[in-house]
Specification:
single chain; alpha/beta; Rossmann fold; SH3 type barrels; Elongation Factor Tu (Ef-tu), domain 3; 3 domains; six-stranded antiparallel beta barrel; five-stranded parallel beta sheet; 7 helices; 17 strands; globular
């Protein structure tokens, strides 16, 4: 019987390296591939940089699997970096990992996998692929490693992508993955996780935007919740909802970014209490375990990666937005971030991009 072929996206880190090892142990015909996505990245922790490629190549050699370096610079620039810039320019706070997963790590990689005769792609993400017991649709399930769970950034995958995806690390904790790497002698066993945005290693996204897009932020007004002018801001790309530090002006009391109004070039400031709200809306909905929403449904939802899923009721508005009404008010729902809806068992039901409906 011919082995099923899988193309593993190898970042050079411990998770994807162990994923390749586990799949080979499970009897798959494994091919390794590193995605070369951004020309400026250097340093050992960058998940798509030059050093990462060499780390991945050494792991592939040790595992005795074929290895390719795939040039996805154009896809990454168009689908991730340009999107990142446009979101900030329009007063939102983007999550580039979600875009990268859907359009580069899955869409482009799966297309390349098919060209190589592979039935599956695989990654080192901490999540599991499951089938919903009621709808029969493919969905994403929270991993065994609760602290490392990555389902939030995977909600945007399609049914076809999920059907042809393997995530072997989802059954393990991070400590178990590192132990496996050490046991088989991988030199990346103790390699630290990459936490920053991979194409902005110094995390100075404002300078990155100014440098790469020749964009000069325009000064505008800080205003209070009633629209009264409080002072001048340095350009809306410098701010995100919930921010308190770095406003560049003293108010005599703590003030937080409550809303960003790009059409007026205004940054609205308020108290911490003003940041709490029960209703959150999202657009560009991707249905995962659910095909749609009829009426109101009870669920849990997250409004950011590190947010603990909170009890809520979800529905669709007449305009096709995802409406999430939390049982308890949540802090700083940020336009551009994702609203991801789960069932009580940790299965992803649907998700979308948070917006602030116009009043």
């Amino acid at each position: 019987m011919e082995k099923k072929k899988v193309l593993v996206g190898m970042s050079g880190g411990v998770d994807s390296s162990v994923a390749a090892y586990l799949l080979k142990e499970q009897g798959y015909d494994v091919i390794g591939a590193t995605l070369h996505m951004w020309q400026e990245i250097e340093g050992e922790s960058r998940c798509c940089g030059v050093d990462a490629i060499e780390d991945a190549r050494r792991v592939a050699d040790m595992l005795e699997i074929p290895f390719y370096v795939l040039n996805f610079k154009n896809e990454f620039k168009k689908k991730v970096v340009d999107y990142f810039f446009e979101d900030y320019k329009n007063g939102r706070t983007p999550n580039p990992c979600i875009q990268c997963n859907r359009y580069v790590k899955w869409e482009a990689l799966y297309q390349r996998a098919k060209e190589l005769g592979a039935e599956y792609i695989a990654t080192g993400h901490y999540a599991r692929i499951a089938k919903h017991p009621e709808t029969g649709r493919f969905c994403i399930e929270m991993s065994a490693a609760a602290a490392k769970d990555q389902t939030y950034v995977l909600y945007n995958l399609t049914q076809e992508q999920l059907e042809h995806t393997l995530m072997p690390c989802g059954e393990y904790t991070k400590e178990e993955i590192r132990a496996i790497a050490e046991k088989i002698g991988l030199r990346v066993a103790d390699k630290p996780d990459s936490m920053e945005i991979c194409f902005i290693p110094d995390n100075d996204y404002v300078s990155f935007i100014e440098r790469n897009y020749k964009y000069k932020p325009k000064e505008g007004n800080f205003v209070d919740m009633s629209g009264n002018v409080l002072g001048k801001h340095k350009g809306i790309i410098n701010y995100t909802v919930g921010q308190r530090k770095g406003l560049g002006i003293a108010f005599g009391k703590p003030m937080y970014v409550n809303r960003i109004l790009p059409e007026k070039n205004q940054v609205v400031l308020g108290s911490n209490d003003d940041l709490f709200e029960r209703e959150v809306y999202a657009e560009n909905i991707n249905f995962v375990a659910w095909e749609s929403i009829e009426g109101e449904k009870r669920a849990k939802a997250k409004i950011r990666y590190a947010h603990k899923a909170a009890d809520c009721t979800v529905s669709l508005t007449d305009g096709g937005l995802l409406k999430c009404t939390f049982d308890q008010s949540q802090r700083a729902a940020t336009p551009g971030q994702a609203l991801v809806v789960y069932d009580e068992n940790g299965l992803v039901l649907c998700g979308g991009t948070i917006i602030k409906p116009k009043n």
